[in-house]
Fold:
Amino acid sequence: MRSLEAILQQSKSVAVIGYSAKEERPSHWISNYLADQGYRVYRVNPVLGSSKEVPIFRSLSELPETVDIVDVFRAPEHLPAIVAEVIAHGAKVVWMQPGAENEDAAELARTAKLEAVVGVCIYAKHKAMAKLTDK
Structure:
């Protein structure tokens, strides 16, 4: 597996599974942060509707491109089905945020030749990496 820094540096697009319209939720503000950092961010939630400002997709299959990273903000029991969707989508990295860890799903991803990041916050990792490159 590539280093987390390499994954973040080499990736251009991120799908956020479990996006919340509530501004205080990490999936919301981390999506905005990633977009502000130059990533193409696709917000995915099957029950939310889109607005003019924020398009929200019902599933990965609706995205206009295959993304590099699928960043997951869902309960661990949902991860096996999500990883199956990620495999079908063709993304190369599934990133399981803290609270979304599922080692069985991670192993399923690795068996399918995906990179699986488990229990690391993408925001914290990116911020730490940005601080190192600012020096």
